[in-house]
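Q: My labmate handed me this sequence with no annotations at all. I'd like to see what the chain might look like in three dimensions before we decide whether it's worth expressing. Could you predict it?
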Amino acid sequence: MNSKNVTCGRGYAAAHGGRNMKSLELDLYGDVGAVDGIDPAKVVALLRGAPDAKRINIRLNSPGGSAFDGIAIFNALKDHPAKVTVKVDGLAASAASIIAMAGDTIEMGEGSFLMVHRA
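A: Here is what I predict for the chain of 119 residues:
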C-alpha cells in the first residue's frame, strides 16, 4: 500500500493507499487557510488524487480561519462521490465548522466542541 503525507501547517493531511485506494484518511489540524494552517489547495489535490475512494475519514481540530477556504474545502468534499465521515477530535470552530458540515456523518470526540457563528 502506498502512503503519502502532505504538510498542512501544524497538522497534516495524510492519504494512504495510492490512486486506487478505497479509503482516504485526512487529518486536518491547524488554522484554516493560514500560511501555517490547513491549505485548501493541498486538501483538494489529495481528493483529486483519490477519485475511486469510497470513504473519506477526516479527523478535525481547528479554531477556524478563512471562511472562504473552509467553504472551498466543504465544496470539494461534497463534490467527491465518497461517503464522508468527520470526527472532531478537539475543536471545530468558525471556518472549521463549515468543513465539519461536509460530513455525511459527524462524530464528536469526548470533550470536543463545535462552534458555529450566529447568523
